[in-house]
Amino acid sequence: MPHARIRKTALLATTLVVVSATVQSAPATGQDVVRVEEGNRISEDIPATPDALVERLNRYQNTRGANVAGWLGDDCLLVATRFAETAQAHRVCQPLGMREQLTFYPEPLAGMVAAPPRAWRQGFVFAKDSGGDEFSQLYWFDARTRGSTLLTDGGRTQNNEVVLSRDGALMAYTSTARNGTDRDIWVRDTRSGQARAVVIEGGSWGALDFSADGKRLLVSRYVSIAEAHPGEVDLDSGELTMFPVDGGKAAFGAFRYAPDDRAVYYVSDEAVDGAPQEFRSLRHHDPAGGAPAILSADIPWDVSEFALADDGRHLAFVSNEDGIGRLHLLSLPEHRPVALPELPIGLLGGLAFSPDGRRLALTLNSATSPSDAYVIDIDARTLTRWTRSEVGGLDTGRFVAPSLIHFPTFDQAGNGGPRMIPAFYYRPAEAAPGRRLPVVIQIHGGPESQARPGFSPTAQFLANELGIAVLVPNVRGSAGYGKTYLSLDNGPRREDSVRDIGALLDWIATRPELDADRVGVYGGSYGGYMVLASLMHYPERIRAGVDIVGISHFGTFLKNTEDYRRDLRRAEYGDERDPAMAALFDRISPLNGAAKITSPLFVAQGRNDPRVPWTEAEQIVEAVRGNGQPVWYLLFNDEGHGFRKKSNADHFTAATMLFWQQHLLK
């Protein structure tokens, strides 16, 4: 590390763990920094977490969820869940039945895709990286032999976004194998094992769906969250045909061939009759039938995903309505709404029709319940729970459900009134009368992500055990609120989203139950930048901040992020090669304003992070310490962009709770 001045070493050893503690001097200040190395974890200036806090937190950290990844045969669900250190593949063959673990890797699995019902072999494809480096490789898990086979090169390449043909004979996927920068589309013959690149146009491409005969492939080039360009590849000739986009520029989501293999279903905010659209709607386009039909025209919110039944009789889709997921079912081909059983209010995903098309599996998650697998019987209109995930033995009746609030910010909306910013408010249920509550503001990353009221054991612990109110805002630039709102923080308006945090601080000061003198900020990735920027702009109003894998200078971030991500991030943040943009980055980046950060700071980072390199954390830690301010610093050598191994996540969370105890509660 650049600030290391090793002076002495003390070894505390057992037969299992060797802990190395060193005392260093931070540059410019000469202050001692206590550095502890234990396995893959490096801690600097972080006190030991009291046993009482660890025990209190333990049950919250032992909650788990289950997420639907598809069907394995006619009667079994493929789910991702964690029973040890990492999330692995499991099979469940009846409601609330045993979860049979299928994979046993030290690294978590991602992107599981089950073989289609008519495939020549049964099993699933999954992705797995090493230590969070995101150079994911693809593997085939064979349901008959229970063995796994590496499908990609096993090197420093990224391979993901798998699509299988109806008969399982072809596998399309995205890979950086050609040059390490561009995300090309490859197609693999699953019988022979031969793979070939079919789209090498440059940029970031993804495969979307095979035609029924396996001769055509829907593809899309992703530019930014607001712009994508769909097309189709003839796999025999290699010819790529791009589809026209009304208005020239639009966002696109899922894109699938209709059962007739001629028309398509897709999600887009493409202009309609020349009129711009704020939200992404579900559309059906038959080239022989004229203009696309808007199937969700009566829903003024984004459609987030959809699924088609293999028998061609139904289509299910989810709308994201102010952060809440709503499920819809249409009969095909007439697109008639089909009645559904009542669902819990929360988040929905993982839609997967059973091979016979009679059942729909999905993942349900709410603020008071972790993710679980459910199955809807379409004809009977019944909802059946297939997994019941553990909540550490906690009383879920005590969990806090957040309320949706809106607070005014500094500028006006299109109607002339103040622009209102949405946020979810977790208020402790057992707050003492007359006692003002400390507050943690949790800021999402992205920046084009959206905070939604899903299950958070951390928020529940803060509210129930520490008596801290949690506010989770969707500042400008967040997805889910329309195209205009999404663009409000672009380029030179980057700090307007930070001003939204200032407006939230104003709102907190008006609330009699909240203590405006005890406010902390917490966020990861772009949310980490927001934490640092908020500490820089509002040092007198924010007591402390936790920055996880955060950007500290946009220029150095863009220089050091992995090659395959650089152009994607330039589309959002701006091009650092432009002198005017470089000057803006210098002006707004927390690294250059570190002297203004006078509140206690906790920085946590994964050494293998390909998105926000670990150097972003190192430089802000050194800069803030250089101004005489103490910083807690935590680095995991076996993690990337976030902490996916349970022991690491548990350690970080415990340290974070200690940080809040020391700086918000005392």
TrEMBL record:
Q: Which GO terms describe its molecular function?
A: serine-type endopeptidase activity
BP terms from Gene Ontology: proteolysis
Q: Which residues form the Peptidase S9 prolyl oligopeptidase catalytic domain?
A: 455-664
Give the signal peptide, or none.
Answer: 1-25
According to the record, the segments passing through the membrane are none
Under the heading Gene3D superfamilies, the entry gives: alpha/beta hydrolase (3.40.50.1820), TolB, C-terminal domain (2.120.10.30)
Q: Which UniProt keywords apply?
A: Hydrolase, Signal
The protein's superkingdom reads Bacteria
Q: By its UniProt entry, which Pfam families does this protein fall under?
A: Peptidase_S9 (PF00326)
Q: Return the protein name.
A: Peptidase S9 prolyl oligopeptidase catalytic domain-containing protein
